[in-house]
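I have been asked to look over a protein record a colleague put together. This is what I was given:
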Amino acid sequence: MLIVIGGLPGTGKTTLSRLLATRIGGVHLRIDTIEQAIVDSGLAGHPVGAAGYAVGYALAADHLAQGLTVIAESVNPLGVTRDSWRDVGTKAAAPVVEVEVVCSDPAEHRARVGGRASDIPGLPLPDWQQVVARDYEPWDRDHVVIDTVGQTPEASLAVLLASVVERLR
C-alpha cells in the first residue's frame, strides 16, 4: 500500500508519518531527506525543485515492488505531484490512500513553525511568512484530512489509522 501524506510545513506530517511507519511496519520515505541529500552531494542548492520528488517516486515504486507499505511524506503542494504519487501506486497495483495533514488554528500553526528545529543537518526550515506565502493548491479530489490542532500525535495517529482502514474497505 502507498500512503501519501502531504500538508504545509509545521502541521505534523513528519511526526505522524514516523508514528505510522513504526505502527504498521512501513517504509517512511521523506522528501526533505532526499532533497537535503541532493544538496549535500553538490548537485543542487535549495530549493531543489522536481528532482527530490522524482527520486521519491522511484524509491516508492521500488519499495512497493518488494511488497512493502510506503508512507511517502512531503508538502505535496501541487496537483501534478499528487497525481504522480497516485500513478506510482497504480503502476505497482497497490492501494493508494492520500492524506492531507492540516493545523486549522493559525496561532497554533504559527507557534509550531516558529518553535521547531531541523532534524536534518543543513535543511533550512521555512519561517511563518514563507509557509503562508507558499504555492499550495487546494486538493481537487477525495482524500483523508487529519487536523492535528489540539491533539496529541498519538490521537492524530488513531484518527489516521481508522481512516486508512476505512479507505481500504
User: Anything to note?
Assistant: Residues 8 and 132 are 9 Å apart (CA to CA). The helical segments are 13-24, 31-41, 50-65, 79-91, 106-115, 128-133, 153-168. The chain has seven helices and five strands. The first helix runs from residue 13 to 24.
